[in-house]
Each structure stands twice: as structure tokens, then as C-alpha cells.
Give the backbone structure.
Amino acid sequence: SEIFAFEVIVNNQTGKRTTFDLASEAPEDWEVVAVPIIDRDKIISGLTVRDGGMYVLQVQVTAPLHVEPGRYPITFSAW
């Protein structure tokens, strides 16, 4: 299987220190995980960012074996 990696920046502009939950939607049998840039062996499902701060993470998407080349919709969100 092939892994695709994307850098994501979460900016906190809520006016207060905030904990964000991380979520993803992907086609069946695809795996989507979020990892800190500084510790890519650790999978995270949420993060806390101070007011006005930002957090850089990597979203890693693993395609299933033998998937045909094409476009596949994947959504990642922090809320």
C-alpha cells in the first residue's frame, strides 16, 4: 500500500485556548491518521492550541492494496 502525506496547519483564532477534535472521512479501506510533525510515530485524535497560536501536523493517508489510480475524496477537519 502507498502512503500519501499532507502538512496541515491548525490556526486558533477563537479568542481563547481551544482543544480541537480531529476527524476524517475517506473511502472504505483507506486509512487516515494525524501525527505531530515532531513525533511521527504518535497518532493523535485531538490537539490544544493557545489563542492566536498554530499547530502543524501531518495527515497520512494509506491507500488499500491494489487500488486503481484515480481521484478519491478524503475530508480532514479540526473542530
